[in-house]
Write a structure and sequence with these properties.
The chain is built from two helices and two strands, in the order E-E-H-H. With 83 residues, the protein is of the alpha+beta class. It has one domain. The longest helix has 22 residues.
Length: 83
């Protein structure tokens, strides 16, 4: 397995099972491979990196949606003491 890094998160991706990848993850894999293996012009490289970041944000949103707003509500209720 080869680690796939996304904003500090490391996920193990099985290369032997391409069906385990989402469409976004598969495209990220292709972009990463291109960036490592091919010499690109600066504009092409920038476009590829930009697309990879967009896909990484989509994948992270699917895996762990971020809470909206401030602190979560306190779910317990404290009863006053009698007397």
């Amino acid at each position: 397995m080869k680690p796939a890094r996304t904003e500090g998160v490391v996920q193990k991706v099985r290369l032997s099972d391409p069906d385990a990848l989402s469409r976004e993850q598969a495209e990220m894999w292709e972009i990463s491979d291109t960036l490592h293996c091919v010499e690109l012009r600066l504009v092409q490289r920038s476009e590829q990196v930009s697309r990879w970041v967009e896909l990484a944000e989509q994948v992270l949103a699917q895996v762990a949606p971020r809470p909206q707003g401030g602190r979560p509500e306190l779910r317990t209720q404290i009863s006053p003491r009698p007397g």
